[in-house]
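Subject — a protein and its fold

Tokens — whole-number codes for backbone shape
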Amino acid sequence: MATNYVLIDFENVQPKNLEILSKHPFKVFIFCGANQTRLPYDLAAAMQRLGNNAEYIKISGNGRNALDFHIACYVGELATKDPEGHFHIISKDTGFDTLIQHLKGRKIQIQREKDLAEIPVLRMSMATSDDEKIAAIVKNLEGRGQSRPRKLKTLSNTINTLFTKKLEESELLALIEELRKRRYIAVQEGRVSYKLSK
């Protein structure tokens, strides 16, 4: 299973729900600005529980977008070491979106979320009703752009991976059928086409 890397722009987002990452294989990096001298106790305790999978990075220097450039640098380094990784920038800063679009064009699995709970594998694990599961699958497919699965078997594998391969075959087939009924996908001779909002 691919490693999920979470890079948190702590100047922009101060997550209060870091503990939701503890049940999944994440590597977490919190980027702190040069002038940020304090961290909330709950955040520090949650990071400590993640052990070697958690790291603080205090940037050196100030300036417009200084922290953003540090995050971009780390994404590049990590993607070079682990091209199969999935990268999640946690920030409300839309300035990352151009970089993300460029990296997706280079087949790097990356997206920006405003909150940790928006990370697809977490959305999947928290989804209980069929509507929540369909919404989570559609959101993930929208974020894939041109790299959406083109074959039905690949789509099945993708959905199963999103749910960390815990779906029964019947449940997986029911979700694909529901995507088809709701006209998010069309399937013809094993090939899939999409009608998503993005």
